[in-house]
């Protein structure tokens, strides 16, 4: 099995979407430019969602226009609907992502529709993206627990994964949105998920609220997953999931992976400099 692990950097999107202090557009651009030098192949740069829902991402177009694109790095963006997709294409996102949920309560709170309605809304978006040659990633939120509905049935996660893959997503990222997972619940969720998708098409997206994200990554590595979403400095959370701490920290995960003998391709010194940049900026803004 491969000893290379891809860390998909989430800081500029999943991190900054939840910052209470305003991070300026030039600072976001500088953060992404610094991350581009760290060795990531994928950086989620922003999201083309409604600015009324998430004002922190209102400058998505300006952010993508301002960055210096590094060859070999894909700059991705969330797109909840066709309007978001069209904005992302106009801004030259390299890849887009649709984001659904395994729980009805979170689906309503996050994107204002049921799971079924969300999948119906995503289908024409994925069709357009496939016609236009843009890869689409899928997310499933609340894969172990929902802040509104309680524990999630692993079978429901598998059902949504199957629909996202069937629609044309190249990979599905499994979100422990409120960081409630433990190695046991993550294993149970993955056991169901692996019945509908090979490990190579699944990614772990574990928030660190319960301080178990690294243990959950290790459990997922055992089951064959080799892609994980992390955020520099452990930034962020989710505005529609009360209690969601940041994504697991990129540096903490990379260090653990390196200790376990995995390669991430990351330049740790540059990662530390990028982390110091955003941490100082946040502290200065408070
Ligand atoms: P809605 O209010 O039901 O939609 O929101 P609407 O179609 O009625 O539109 C309302 C207004 O927003 C309209 O403007 C639209 O034009 C505008 P008005 O006519 O009132 O002036 N609008 C848009 N503007 C810009 N870009 C767009 C867009 N769409 C509509 N794409 C909607 C539905 C999905 C738009 C809204 O609920 C939304 O934007 N939700 C996004 C919430 C979000 O970004 N959450 C965080 C990301 S998900 C996450 O963090 C989880 C993840 O990390 C994995 C995990 O951890 O689990 C991925
Ligand atoms: Mg998230």
UniProtKB/TrEMBL annotation:
<dbReference type="InterPro" id="IPR013785">
    <property type="entry name" value="Aldolase_TIM"/>
</dbReference>
<dbReference type="GO" id="GO:0046951">
    <property type="term" value="P:ketone body biosynthetic process"/>
</dbReference>
<feature type="domain" description="Pyruvate carboxyltransferase">
    <location>
        <begin position="5"/>
        <end position="272"/>
    </location>
</feature>
<dbReference type="GO" id="GO:0004419">
    <property type="term" value="F:hydroxymethylglutaryl-CoA lyase activity"/>
</dbReference>
<dbReference type="InterPro" id="IPR000891">
    <property type="entry name" value="PYR_CT"/>
</dbReference>
<dbReference type="GO" id="GO:0046872">
    <property type="term" value="F:metal ion binding"/>
</dbReference>
<dbReference type="InterPro" id="IPR043594">
    <property type="entry name" value="HMGL"/>
</dbReference>
<dbReference type="Pfam" id="PF00682">
    <property type="entry name" value="HMGL-like"/>
</dbReference>
<comment type="similarity">
    <text>Belongs to the HMG-CoA lyase family.</text>
</comment>
<keyword id="KW-0456">Lyase</keyword>
<protein>
    <submittedName>
        <fullName>Hydroxymethylglutaryl-CoA lyase</fullName>
    </submittedName>
</protein>
<dbReference type="GO" id="GO:0006552">
    <property type="term" value="P:L-leucine catabolic process"/>
</dbReference>
<keyword id="KW-0479">Metal-binding</keyword>
């Amino acid at each position: 099995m491969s000893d290379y692990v891809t860390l998909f950097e989430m800081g500029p999107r999943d991190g900054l979407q939840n910052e209470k202090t305003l991070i300026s557009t030039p600072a976001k651009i500088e953060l992404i430019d610094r991350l581009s030098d760290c060795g990531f192949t994928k950086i989620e740069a922003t999201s083309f969602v409604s600015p009324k829902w998430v004002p922190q991402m209102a400058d998505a177009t300006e952010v993508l226009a301002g960055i210096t694109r590094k060859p070999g790095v894909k700059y991705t963006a969330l797109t909840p609907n066709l309007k978001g997709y069209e904005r992302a294409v106009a801004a030259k996102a390299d890849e887009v992502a649709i984001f659904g949920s395994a729980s009805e309560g979170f689906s309503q709170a996050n994107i204002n529709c049921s799971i079924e309605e969300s999948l119906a809304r995503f289908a024409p978006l994925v069709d357009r993206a496939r016609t236009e040659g843009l890869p689409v990633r899928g997310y499933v939120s609340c894969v172990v627990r929902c802040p509104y509905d309680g524990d999630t049935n692993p079978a429901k996660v598998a059902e949504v994964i199957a629909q996202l893959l069937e629609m044309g997503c190249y990979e599905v990222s499994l979100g422990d949105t409120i960081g409630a997972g433990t190695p046991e619940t993550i294993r149970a969720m993955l056991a169901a998920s692996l019945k509908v998708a090979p490990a190579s098409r699944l990614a772990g997206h574990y928030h660190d609220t319960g301080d178990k994200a690294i243990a959950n990554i290790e459990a997922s590595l055992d089951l064959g997953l080799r892609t994980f979403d992390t955020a520099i400095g452990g930034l962020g959370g989710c505005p529609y999931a009360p209690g969601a701490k940041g994504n697991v920290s990129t540096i903490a995960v990379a260090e653990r992976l390196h200790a376990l003998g995995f390669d991430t391709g990351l330049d740790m010194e540059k990662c530390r400099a990028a982390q110091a940049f955003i941490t100082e900026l946040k502290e200065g803004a408070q």
